[in-house]
Amino acid sequence: MAIKTILVPLSGLPGRGQWMDAVIRLSREWDAHLETLHVAMDPRDSVAYVGEGMTSAMIGDVMAVAERESDERRQEAQKVFEDACQRNGVTISDQPDSGPRTAHFTIVTGREEDVVASRGRLADLIFARRPEGGGEEVTFSVTLEAALLDTGRPVLILPPSDPVEFGSSIAIYWNGSPEAGKAINYAMPFLEKADRVSVIEVDAENHSGPGTEDVTNYLAWHGVRAEGRDLERKGSDSESLLAATSAAGADMLVMGAYTRSRLRRLVFGGVTRDVLTRSAVPVLMAH
User: Fold this and answer.
1) In a 10 Å sphere around its CB, with 0-12 CB exposed, 13-18 middle and 19+ buried, how is residue 267 labelled?
2) CA of residue 204 relative to chain centroid, distance
3) Where are the extended beta strands (E) located within the chain?
């Protein structure tokens, strides 16, 4: 599939450094339009987080503070966006006839997870950047789950550290699930340009359906040369996968997201969550 529209939520998660450059480099490589999204909180929603018995003057003060903080976060995110566009020679426009390599800073008021879920359905790829910690992790987790579960689109999650170049050596986590197959399909623009591709399966004898050899044959039809690696579990699936990804020298990981039911994830945990919190390389996921 061609990647022509990319969505990047930037609502209070601009971070530091040059990570936006990595996103813009990819958008330029594909002549894709980059929509950078800032979701501003409605000041009236801030009242729901305060106690009862407040006077109208107190409520007004709370709303004013919330509006001021929201505007500060918007200004910070917009500066990250504009600086990155200037460094990389990208045209700021939201019109399809403005030519290739365009970007736009979009401001929407609402709940971030709802806005990302709705706007993400018309994006070919959604980018997210994992925060380094603190209170932003909860907001990030909710937004990311909405992007993965409610858009039907692939999400590429960058680690907290600023990535340099990635995509030259790609590891694919294969477990035979529909989500893993969908992730491979969405990742094809990356896989076709990679110098090396490894297909990793943990405890293959416990999985039914196609194995790593079938996956490498499928990729060969698309002109992608890949090698299969069937691994024994050492620790959890996620520990085995991350260790194998590192051993393969991969700078990017492709995998299906939330392949277990919600109940099984709550009881047994999940590979998706573990990889998201521990991966040192960018991860492309699809559900």
Assistant:
1) exposed
2) 27
3) 5-9, 33-40, 91-92, 102-109, 125-129, 155-158, 169-173, 196-202, 227-231, 252-256, 283-286
Measured CA to CA, the distance from residue 102 to residue 96 in angstroms comes to 9
- Residue 2 has φ and ψ, to the nearest 5°, of -85, 140
Residues lower than pLDDT 50 in the chain: 13-14, 263-269
The size of the chain, in residues, is: 287
| pLDDT per position as a tens digit, 37-77 | 998 877 666 555 555 566 677 666 666 777 788 788 888 88
Dmax (CA) for the chain in angstroms is 68
What's at 104, amino acid-wise?
H
Q: Report the relative pairing of strands 102-109 and 155-158 from DSSP bridges.
A: unpaired
Q: State the pTM of this model.
A: 0.87
Place of tokens 């996103």: 23
User: Is 97 exposed, middle or buried, given 0-12, 13-18 or 19+ CB atoms closer than 10 A?
Assistant: exposed
Sign, CA torsion 84/87/88/90: positive
Query: How wide is the angle at C-alpha 143 spanned by C-alphas 139 and 145, nearest 5°?
Result: 120
Rounded distance between C-alpha atoms, residue 210 and residue 212, angstroms: 7
Domains, in order of start, for the chain: 5-158 (3.40.50.620), 169-286 (3.40.50.620)
